[in-house]
Design brief:
The protein has three helices and two strands, in the order αβαβα. With 84 residues, the protein is of the alpha+beta class. Strands 1-2 form a two-stranded parallel ribbon. The longest helix is centred in the N-terminal third of the chain and has 14 residues. The termini are far apart.
Amino acid sequence: MAALLIAARNAYPFLAPSRPAYGEVLIVEGWMPDAELEQAIRVFDTHEYELLVTTGGPLLIGSFLSEYSTYAQAHRGELEATGC
């Protein structure tokens, strides 16, 4: 039981490391909220990336009302609107 408790307490730093390599391409998950997207834009501008790529599957709700059919397209639209 103690080993399980120790593993649970130390799982987050192991499973969610944040060690950016700052290469040429920044990849942004399409499901991210707008606040994190704004942070990604700041990182993109600060670290001289050449390309920003968005990912994401289909919008499951409201896609017939939107010009975007995937999360990736929706974030692309947001990024273009901000001038990124």
